[in-house]
């Protein structure tokens, strides 16, 4: 600190201390205070303790909060509410459903690329719709170690459940579609599985309000596998791709979606609403 | 008598054919209430019911005038007035202490970030973890994790704080600090804590409830509870005949709870633990296990 050649007038310091100066004058006084110990001492006597405390608290707050990760800054930038970003941020266990989704899609790719033409359709249409189901089921099994605390909080459990579902399927769906597009011979079936998968995923969410994730996932997967095997034995797996079947899956999805909203708002995953 | 912060009317809980809690009526007022009982007595079930983490099989629960067992809107309103610390708390991987509390604050509907962060820092300071705020939860000690879990229950100064064995894993200094925090919280609200530490009850609680086999066996003030054991605790050179429990103390004398005192035995002031042992022994079904 160097010796200043002038000192701020008491009136000027008083207005500075009370926050009554405009920004240019405030900046000028602060520049002077940075190098004048005498004026610093005079100003310190004039600033009310509560104001100093408030400024200090703001400093502590600014340096205490950890930096927000880039992915969450991006989510906020595109308009996702901060509370939703926080819920996704807490779902660090989502990495596991994401890894399982990729693994499921890879298994699907390997099975279908090794199979003959007839079996290829069956395997792809049997496995692909279950990849998002696997992701959602694993999300509910592993992402909420704080379930016991979370259930006693007022935030809507439906919102949490749907956010997690969206986060889990955000990876599962694109990777499975990619498998359908990459593996030769899948053709139109690369997207045909999407509506059955939506219906299966929503049905699993309905089951999750009563059963554990493992039971709900197994029931859905078992029922779908049985259905597809029946179609295969009747030599009709292509029925899935027909317009009538797609409409039926769309209607089933709407019904299941309606049930999900009704049930999860009354009785969310894990039990009591 | 003031309006109770929480009420239970005919509340029971069944798990299949097992009855975990018999029909229970309770009024919980401001202050610290200790919940004692052996393992499997129904303490955790009772706490989870009051904390709205579990629906009752029968009966009605209200918290701050809101019916927990009513509509979702009512239950949500009740949850805005309560906080719950479970016996076991799972922490998400990779979170720092600050992140964990920040997330719980979001679940408790603290939407404004600055206000929320202020509250997180306040409770971190309260449990003396302010300097550990940027440390990952996985790197904290067991006691520090327990204090962190407790901090989330203190956020927003709720009317009702429900704590399941909050002092487990804490050293004596931390337990003393915790008593200070809880007694402060009880100035404006109700703190209900389940514990096996009878010294916590005698040091901290205004009221004690003893639960056994899903039934309330005692409900009253701590002095009333202790007075039940008056004249039944002895110091002598040898254990009294038929004592429920006896042990040699640091002075070499033998302290006995219950039984028939010998001619040289002298009665001593009973503790909460003595009263608890005697109460448990009154139930013929537990006598075998006590002796």
Provide tags for this entry.
heterodimer, A: 273 residues, mainly alpha, 15 helices, B: 291 residues, alpha/beta, 6-stranded mixed sheet, 4-stranded antiparallel sheet
Describe this structure in words.
The complex is a heterodimer of chains A (273) and B (291). Chain A is 73% helix and 0% strand. With 273 residues, chain A is mainly α. In chain A, helix 7 packs antiparallel against helix 9, helix 7 runs parallel beside helix 11 and helix 9 runs parallel beside helix 13. Chain B has a six-stranded mixed beta sheet, with helices on both faces. Chain B contains ten helices and 14 strands. The model of chain B has no long low-confidence stretch (mean pLDDT 90). The longest helix of chain B is centred in the middle third of the chain and has 14 residues. By secondary structure, chain B is of the alpha/beta class. Chains A and B meet through helix 4, helix 6 and helix 10 of A and helix 2, strand 6, helix 3 and helix 4 of B.
Helix-strand blueprint:
The complex is a heterodimer of chains A (273) and B (291).
Chain A: H1 10-17, H2 23-33, H3 37-46, H4 49-64, H5 70-77, H6 82-90, H7 95-114, H8 117-127, H9 130-142, H10 147-150, H11 157-182, H12 189-192, H13 194-208, H14 213-233, H15 243-266
Helix pairs in contact in A: 1-3, 7-8, 7-9, 7-11, 8-14, 9-11, 9-13, 9-14, 13-14, 13-15
Chain B: E1 6-15, E2 18-28, E3 31-36, H1 43-50, E4 58-63, E5 66-67, H2 72-79, E6 82-85, H3 97-107, H4 113-126, H5 142-154, E7 160-164, H6 172-185, E8 190-194, H7 198-204, E9 207-212, E10 215-221, H8 222-227, E11 233-236, E12 245-248, E13 254-257, E14 266-267, H9 272-282, H10 284-290
Parallel strand pairs in B: 3-8, 3-9, 6-7, 7-8
Antiparallel strand pairs in B: 1-2, 1-4, 4-5, 9-10, 11-13, 11-14, 12-13
Helix pairs in contact in B: 3-4, 4-5, 9-10
């Amino acid at each position: 600190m160097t010796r200043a050649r002038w000192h701020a007038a008491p009136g000027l310091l008083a207005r500075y201390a009370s926050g009554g100066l405009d920004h240019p004058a405030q900046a000028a006084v602060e520049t002077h205070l940075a190098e004048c110990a005498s004026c610093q001492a005079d100003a310190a006597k004039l600033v009310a303790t509560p104001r100093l405390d408030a400024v200090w608290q703001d400093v502590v707050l600014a340096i205490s909060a950890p930096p927000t990760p880039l992915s969450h800054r991006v989510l906020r930038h595109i308009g996702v509410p901060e509370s939703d970003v926080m819920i996704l941020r807490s779902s660090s266990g989502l990495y596991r459903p994401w890894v399982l989704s990729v693994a499921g899609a890879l298994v699907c790719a390997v099975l279908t690329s090794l199979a003959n033409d007839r079996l290829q359709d069956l395997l792809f249409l049997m496995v692909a719709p279950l990849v998002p189901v696997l992701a959602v089921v694993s999300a509910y099994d592993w992402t909420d170690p704080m379930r016991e605390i979370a259930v006693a909080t007022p935030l809507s459990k439906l919102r949490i459940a749907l956010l997690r579902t969206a986060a889990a399927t955000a990876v599962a769906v694109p990777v499975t579609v990619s498998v359908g597009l990459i593996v030769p011979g899948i053709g139109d079936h690369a997207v045909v599985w999407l509506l059955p998968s939506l219906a299966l995923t929503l049905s699993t969410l309905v089951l999750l309000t009563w059963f554990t994730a493992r039971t709900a996932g197994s029931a859905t997967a078992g029922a779908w596998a049985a259905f597809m095997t029946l179609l295969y034995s009747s030599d009709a797996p292509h029925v899935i791709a027909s317009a009538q079947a797609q409409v039926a899956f769309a209607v089933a999805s709407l019904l299941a979606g309606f049930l999900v909203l009704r049930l999860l708002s009354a009785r969310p995953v894990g039990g009591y609403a | 008598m003031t309006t109770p912060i929480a009420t239970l009317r005919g509340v029971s809980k069944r798990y299949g054919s097992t009855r975990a809690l018999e029909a229970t009526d309770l009024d919980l007022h401001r202050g610290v209430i200790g919940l004692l009982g052996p393992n499997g007595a129904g303490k955790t079930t009772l706490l989870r019911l009051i904390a709205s983490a579990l629906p009752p099989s029968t009966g009605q629960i209200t918290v701050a005038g809101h019916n927990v067992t009513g509509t979702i809107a009512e239950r949500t309103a009740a949850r805005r007035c309560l906080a719950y610390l479970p016996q076991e708390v799972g922490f998400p991987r990779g979170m720092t202490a600050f992140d964990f509390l920040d997330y719980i604050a979001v679940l408790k509907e603290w939407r404004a970030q600055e206000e929320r962060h202020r509250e997180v820092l306040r409770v971190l300071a309260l449990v003396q973890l302010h300097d550990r705020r940027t440390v990952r939860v996985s790197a904290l000690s067991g006691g520090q994790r327990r204090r962190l879990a407790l901090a989330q229950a203190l956020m927003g100064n709720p009317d009702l704080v429900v704590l399941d064995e909050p002092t487990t894993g804490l050293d004596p200094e931390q337990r003393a600090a915790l008593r200070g925090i809880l007694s402060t919280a009880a100035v404006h609200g109700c703190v209900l804590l389940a514990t096996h530490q009878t010294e916590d009850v005698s040091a901290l609680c205004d009221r004690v409830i003893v639960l056994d086999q899903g039934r309330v066996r005692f409900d009253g003030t701590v002095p009333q509870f202790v007075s039940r054991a008056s004249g039944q605790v002895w110091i002598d050179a040898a254990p009294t005949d038929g004592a429920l429990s006896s042990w040699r103390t640091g002075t070499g004398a033998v302290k006995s709870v219950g039984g028939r005192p010998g001619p040289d035995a002298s009665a001593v002031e009973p503790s909460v633990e003595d009263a608890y042992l005697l109460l448990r022994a009154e139930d013929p079904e537990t006598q075998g296990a006590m002796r």
